[in-house]
Amino acid sequence: MGGLVQIFRGMGPSKLALMLGVAAALIGFFFFVTTRLSAPNMELLYSGLDLQDSGQIASRLDGMNVPYELRNNGSEIYVASSQVLKTRVTLAQEGLPAGGSLGYELFDRSQSLGTTSFVQNINRLRALEGELARTIRTIDRVAGARVHLVLPKREVFTRQKEEPTASIILKMQGGSRLDKEQVLSIRHLVAAAVPGLKTGAISIVDGRGSLLARSQEGGETQAMSTLEEKRIALQRRYKSAIEELLQNRVGLGNVRAEVTIELDMERSTTNAELFDPDGQVVRSSQAVEEKAQSSESEGEQPVTVAGNLPEGADASAGPGSLSSNSRLEETTNFEISKTTKTEVHEAGAVKRISVAVLVNGIVGEDENGERTYAPRSEDEVEQLQSLVQSVIGFDEDRGDTIEIVNMEFVPLNEFGDEDEDASFLGLTKNDYFRVAEMLVLTVVGVLVLLLVVRPLVSRGLTIAADAVAASTKQLTDATAGVLPGPDGMIAGEIGPDGVPVENLTSEGGGQDGLDVDRIEGQVRTSPTKRIAELVTKHPDETVAIMRNWLYQDA
């Protein structure tokens, strides 16, 4: 242990700091690798949450002792993949996530004692808005919704009653948008839930600020509020009908259709009166018949009893003249047949239809398993054209055109439209990513051991071996029988007169004029003194050397 300390002392502050930094980095790296490999695979629990829902869910997960992660500024919560379904069921029982809106549970939190009618009305309005928002969010492609209701209070001394209104803002998932039928269903849903609310008094806006439904429109007619929307709707309907019909013959995905409709944008009113001279009709008929009769006598008739009796003889039988006159007049009035016609030509009538259909040929495989292609016959193309004409109501006088082209489709795999959810050997894409991540971390760990840890350990062992060898050499030199020179100096050292001291060994004889007794005393004391100093200064290295000697002797 003392030798290792001595090695660290000999490395210097800079090398020691560098070595400590590398060691700390290695410890952190292996801690990260161990934590990453042992951590559970986190899977998305909920996304698109507001801060209120995120806080409630996080608090509930803490109470359930379920580890979780908040990402994307708190709008996404991840938990272990093995606990996703169980956690969702548990949170759903408690009404989480609530979408940031409160429903009728608002009345469970309030205190009825001391609550005014104004507060109760406000809570009722908030609860109704929250429940409607929750219901709208259940529609596909709707990520969030907010509902604002205006329920006017009826005044006591007024005859006019204000109608309730509503405003709805929708947050869609990604770039999707609702079609007119879905917008109309939302309006009817809200209108049916609020007493006295009409569909024409509901406005709907999406997250982009686009007006999906404006107020004061007729309920059913708002789906075709503009001519452009009507044209697009007709084109989509014809396109879908053509593709669905032809796919039954050519196969799924082997037909593409595009429909272009030109609408008449002019609006006119025509009034006409038509007279038919050949169509005479008796309007009235009148007939007048007159008859007149007169008689004249030449004298007066005598007055007798027979003349005054009813059965008496005619008084005019006497002499005179008799005359009569008759007239017949007939008037007939005839009426000529007249037709009054008023025609209103509304804008939006179909003026012209153009259809382009692309049909794939017959695709198969030969004996070698290679893909083959064969074009369709002309008779089959003509039959397909007849079907398209029946779908769109083809009118040649109107200028309708239909083009059907038989061409080879590019395979889907060349576009990269493969099934991302397809699994191989029971493993999904996420599992492959997890395995790849573990392999990468393992390879990096092995490289760190081979390229960083191993060189450092080898370098440390080399330094320790060099230090032990140096200490061994010093002790060997001290005990190898080197004799001191004059005045107790070791041979080779510079004397006081500037002349090197000659080497004197125990084996070599002394020179003339030397004090043999003094030299023998120095020989006995000088090696012992040097060994004592070396042992005092380097006790650990001395022990190591002695152990080495003992092992060699053994």
Task: Kindly describe this structure.
This protein is α+β, with helices and mostly antiparallel strands. It has helices at residues 2-11, 13-38, 51-64, 84-93, 106-109, 117-137, 180-193, 227-250, 305-308, 378-392, 429-478, 516-537, 539-553; strands spanning 42-46, 68-71, 76-80, 142-150, 165-172, 202-206, 211-213, 255-264, 268-297, 320-345, 349-359, 362-365, 371-374, 401-406, 482-483, 504-505. It has a 4-stranded mixed beta sheet. The chain has a 3-stranded antiparallel beta sheet with strand order 1-3-2, with helices on one face. A hairpin with a 4-residue loop joins strand 2 and strand 3 (76-80). Helix 2 packs antiparallel against helix 11 (429-478), helix 8 runs antiparallel to helix 10 and helix 12 packs across helix 13 (539-553).
Number of strands: 16
The fraction of residues in strands falls at 15-25%
Rg calc: 59 Å
Shape: elongated
Which series of helices and strands comes N to C? HHEHEEHHHEEHEEHEEHEEEEHEHEEHH
Biggest sheet architecture:
4 strands, mixed
Note the total helix count: 13
Helix content: 40-55%
Cα end-to-end separation: 24 Å
Order of strands, widest sheet: 4-5-6-7
What structural class should be given to the helix and strand makeup?
Answer: alpha+beta
Low-confidence parts: 218-223, 414-422, 481-494, 501-514
Q: What is the average per-residue confidence, as pLDDT, rounded to a whole number?
A: 75
